[in-house]
């Protein structure tokens, strides 16, 4: 298959921008699937994960308990940078945001445009050149639609001298399917 589905493509973007000793961020831990993937991808590096729900942090801790290079913080991604050790911050190569609500969780707890944009700005500031921020965006529910529009508008106006920004998604699927945005620092 040449055309990749959304989540595999998001993961491949991350894989192609990191090294074994990179520092990486899971900005929305949820059930910890992405945190586990990141922990396996940077065996000599460090993974920082955060979520505003304690249950998500607990689930992610359980899923990644075999790894000692994972730090989980019960906080919003807009605060994540301030929790990263300075030695790790110098090797920050990637961050992933899986926006929206937690599947099988409380659907009222969703990522918000303002804090998502603040988090992108802060993480981008510390990202190494050629590092990447990957967003999986879910415009298929009402709050997700608003967030998708605001984040998209913000990124459309991002200085092209500072980053390459691409969008990847299926254009013939019904009900506003999820899509990927990748922000690669120049
Ligand atoms: C789509 S889920 C993430 C799924 C996760 N990547 C997985 O593999 O299971 C979105 C998560 O973002 C969290 N969230 C919402 N606002 C947040 C914020 N400001 N900072 C960090 N996490 C947030 C929610 O609590 C929810 O767990």
TrEMBL record:
Entry annotated with the keyword Methyltransferase: yes
Coiled-coil region: none
InterPro entries linked to this entry: MnmM_MeTrfase, SAM-dependent_MTases_sf
Gene Ontology molecular function terms on file: methyltransferase activity
CDD domains: AdoMet_MTases
GO biological process: methylation
Domain of life: Bacteria
Keywords: Methyltransferase, Transferase
Pfam families membership: rRNA_methylase
Name of the protein in its database record: 16S rRNA (Cytosine(1402)-N(4))-methyltransferase
Provenance organism: Staphylococcus rostri
């Amino acid at each position: 298959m040449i055309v990749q589905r959304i989540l595999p493509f998001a993961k491949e973007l991350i894989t192609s921008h990191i090294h074994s000793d990179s520092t990486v961020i899971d900005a929305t831990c949820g059930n910890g699937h992405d945190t586990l993937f990141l922990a396996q991808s940077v065996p000599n590096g460090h993974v920082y994960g955060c979520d505003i729900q304690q249950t998500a942090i607990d689930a992610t801790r359980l899923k990644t308990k075999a790894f000692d290079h994972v730090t989980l913080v019960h906080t919003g991604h807009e605060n994540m940078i301030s929790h990263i050790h300075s030695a790790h911050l110098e090797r920050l190569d990637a961050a992933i945001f899986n926006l929206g609500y937690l599947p099988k969780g409380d659907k009222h707890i969703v990522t918000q445009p303002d804090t998502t944009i603040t988090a992108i700005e802060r993480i981008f500031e510390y990202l190494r050149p050629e590092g990447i921020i990957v967003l999986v965006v879910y415009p298929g529910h009402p709050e997700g639609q608003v967030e998708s529009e605001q984040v998209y508008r913000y990124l459309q106006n991002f200085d092209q001298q500072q980053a390459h920004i691409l969008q990847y998604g299926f254009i013939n699927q019904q009900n506003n399917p999820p899509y990927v945005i990748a922000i690669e620092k120049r």
